[in-house]
Amino acid sequence: MGQARAMTANRLKEILRRQRVPEFGAGYEPAIKATREEAPAGSRPATVWSQLLARDVHTLSVPERKVLALLLYCPSLFELQEQRMLPFLPAPHPLHGHPRAKNESLRDLRGTLAVAEERGCLSFHPSVNVDGEEVPACWIGDFLGFFTDRLGPYCVNFNVKSTREEFAVPQVGISVRTDKARAAVKEGFRHLVERELYADIEIRTVEVAADELPPMLTANLLQQLQWQKREHLLSDEQVQIVLDGFNLGLVRRATPLNVMVSIEQTHGIPRYKQRILFEQGVFARKIRIDLFDSHIFTEKPMLPERTDALEAYANWFRRGP
Question: How confident is the model over 132-142, as pLDDT tens digits?
Fold first, then answer.
């Protein structure tokens, strides 16, 4: 779960401007942007382009980027909101206002203040001084994914840490003067409130420790994400020629480079444009190459998929509760 630099009245005002009624798609603004001015001290902020969302996704750490890569790889994802404010007052369901949910019966969020009071941890709720008075502030989540299945749209909340231990012992904002026992209790209540806030409206929270993800899988997905914004400007016929060539090469265990050289010689399609199609085709699941075994290079033989990443992590994407 992310948190901005020291909360101030102006910072809270800006978060509320962006997040009081979060937009969908390209118009969405995260509560914390991946800039040095807004990201937590010691974090590694960066943006990642998403073709699906038609915008940059703001991430605050390497673990977040690893998890994001797998989320964007899932074809049932149709929307994602990163660094999303957990509303402290009652607020509409996250799907409210989305065209896919126009026929859905949606319950409102109660707000973190109500949940914290019910759980006896209101003293740990964030606040900020405004004109000499303490007023409620907000916690900020990592990723809220919007998925669809045969029953319609639904959401899953993702809380990301580097390791499993970090869910119990906070790492951000800790110094030698920190009361670590109190900080651990505060962190526990923070996660409890987040889970219950969403569980009330049947949204599951998945706690992800990024170091438990296969390094080769995330490395390959992150590599392919880097190619998502590039345009090949090929015709539909040329696209099919290239995809067919790679899939035939996959059966024959050829290297992508050998496939590209052959297609360039026979059809005159430049290798660079084929490379764009290769990386985008793997990410779009049009070329079912193995993502777990080794890093994907154009000079290495292609290996057919043995483990489907979506099946391996199916629990991430399932509908709640």
Answer: 899 999 999 99
